[in-house]
Automatic annotation (TrEMBL):
Role description: Component of the F(0) channel, it forms part of the peripheral stalk, linking F(1) to F(0). F(1)F(0) ATP synthase produces ATP from ADP in the presence of a proton or sodium gradient. F-type ATPases consist of two structural domains, F(1) containing the extramembraneous catalytic core and F(0) containing the membrane proton channel, linked together by a central stalk and a peripheral stalk. During catalysis, ATP synthesis in the catalytic domain of F(1) is coupled via a rotary mechanism of the central stalk subunits to proton translocation.
Source species: Goodyera schlechtendaliana
Recorded GO MF terms: proton-transporting ATP synthase activity, rotational mechanism
Listed Pfam families: ATP-synt_B
Cellular component GO terms, alphabetical: chloroplast thylakoid membrane; proton-transporting ATP synthase complex
Family: Belongs to the ATPase B chain family.
Subcellular location: Membrane; Plastid, Chloroplast thylakoid membrane
Coiled coil spans: 64-98
Additional free-text comment from the UniProt record: In plastids the F-type ATPase is also known as CF(1)CF(0).
Protein name: ATP synthase subunit b, chloroplastic
Length: 184
């Protein structure tokens, strides 16, 4: 420690001017060299260091501004998305409500249409039944008429002899002849 203080305080060790000598005492020369190097670095490096720090500061501020802009944009997009979601939910509720009422309306319309179709089918069935009854009645009448005619012919053939038969045919021919004369 004595050497360090001696190198700063004691001037007796200084050589006269005009001579140059190397001081090989490491402990005595290092603090001086370091102080000189640091002084030069601070003096000349201050501007460069300030420029580097200013550039770094500007990049950090720019990054922060960009981040803030991106955050604001993300918040706006989130708000827009939330608004669209609310709108879609309202529309979905409306569609659901309208859909249920539309389904009920369609259900009532289908029931009414089915009821009308069943009524028409019943009317058609009744008309068909009436037609079939009329046809059956007509067939029975026709059969009864044919049977009555056959009995009448059988009775006439049994009751008529050939002379009566001949007179009936002659009378019918006479009637037909008079009818022909009237038509011409």
């Amino acid at each position: 420690m004595k050497n360090i203080t001696d190198s700063f305080v004691s001037v007796g060790h200084w050589l006269p001017v005009g001579s140059f000598e190397l001081n090989t005492d490491i402990l005595a020369t290092n603090p001086i060299n370091l102080s000189v190097v640091l002084g030069v670095l601070i003096f000349f490096g201050k501007g460069v260091l300030n420029d580097l720090l200013d550039k770094r500061k500007q990049r950090i501020l720019s990054t922060i501004r960009n981040s803030e802009d991106l955050r604001r944009g993300a918040i706006e997009q989130l708000e827009k998305a939330r608004a669209r979601l609310r709108k879609v939910e309202v529309e979905a509720d409306e569609y659901r409500t309208n859909g249920y009422s539309e389904i009920e309306r369609e259900k009532v319309n289908l029931i009414n249409a089915t009821f009308d179709s069943l009524k028409q089918l019943e009317n058609f069935q009744n008309e068909t039944l009436f037609f079939e009854q009329q046809r059956a009645i007509h067939q029975v009448r026709q059969q009864v008429f044919q049977q009555a005619l056959q009995r009448a012919l059988g009775t006439l053939n049994n009751c008529l002899n050939s002379e009566l038969h001949f007179r009936t045919i002659s009378a019918n021919i006479g009637i037909l002849g008079s009818v022909e004369e009237r038509t011409y």
